[in-house]
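FW: tagging you since you asked about this chain on Friday. Here's the raw sequence from the shared folder, copied in full. Didn't touch anything.
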Amino acid sequence: MGGSITEVAGILIGHAHDAVRGSGVTVLLFPEGAMAVADIRGEAAGTRQMDSLLRPHPVQKIDALVFAGGSAFGLDAASGVVRYLEARNIGFSTPGGVVPIVPTAVVYDLGYGDSAFRPDSAMGYEAACAASSHPPEQGSVGAGAGATVGKILGISRAMKGGFGSASDSKGGTVVGACTVVNAFGDVVDPVTGRWLAGARAVGKEVPADTDDLFCGGYRREPFSTENTTLAVIATADQLTRDELWGVARMGHAALCRAIRPVHTPMDGDIVVAVATGVSGRKGNAMQAATLGTRALEKAIVDAVRCAKGNGSVPAAAELQGNQP
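HL: got it, structure written out here
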């Protein structure tokens, strides 16, 4: 298993970011449109037009999906993607012209780099222009440029999160996943249980173990609420909206296996399930969910393993004995 979400036919992906100032945008384009639903487990998710993925909606397909840093300010990046699509006459047809359907979700990264820097419409447009079927760069890129993990002891004891992508396949079916990991909890290898990145107790290399701190009754209120893991599971097969609900719900299992703790009151976790349908084949929802969950686990791990720190916030690859 490896690969990327771009192995799924009908998906293009592009990044734009400022690595120094610490934020960016990741755009998924669906040239033929895509059926999609979202399962939101976070209590303070930052979104735009995500309501079209939460309930029956007259618009059956979306044209793009945007993940951005910058918290609520970063929602402005969607405007650039809408502009990009309108110029190419892509969107939902109305008497007044096409209206691109571009659900968007953001992560809070204002505490990592330059808090005055936020992704904007121009950066969203840049990311859309960069979208291709090539395997995307991973780590501190796009919406993962300013992502961090393990913030129970504050940002000074946290580590770098990032963007990751992977795929899995069986019997000729390929399911892909991508994620922006900006979690409150720690990231572990779901296969071995080994700690990869998160809160550090002392110095640079000693894990604090967020789960253990909570089990011991640790309190430091108020905890930071600026945390979110955003994820996509995608197939080229045809699935109904109801089937996609199941894929999205099951996809959260990947977060549960790789992030500890997860779905806390301090997180805004979202999993989006996407079916481009361009294979022309009726899909198997359980196959898509299980392959997609496995791919998403790998994508979460790759997000932190490929990340680069900034000196004060180290990355997993910089810690001795924590190499891939």
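FW: Residues 5-311 form a domain with the L-amino peptidase D-ALA esterase/amidase fold (CATH 3.60.70.12).
HL: agreed, and The chain has one domain: 5-311.
FW: great, closing this out.
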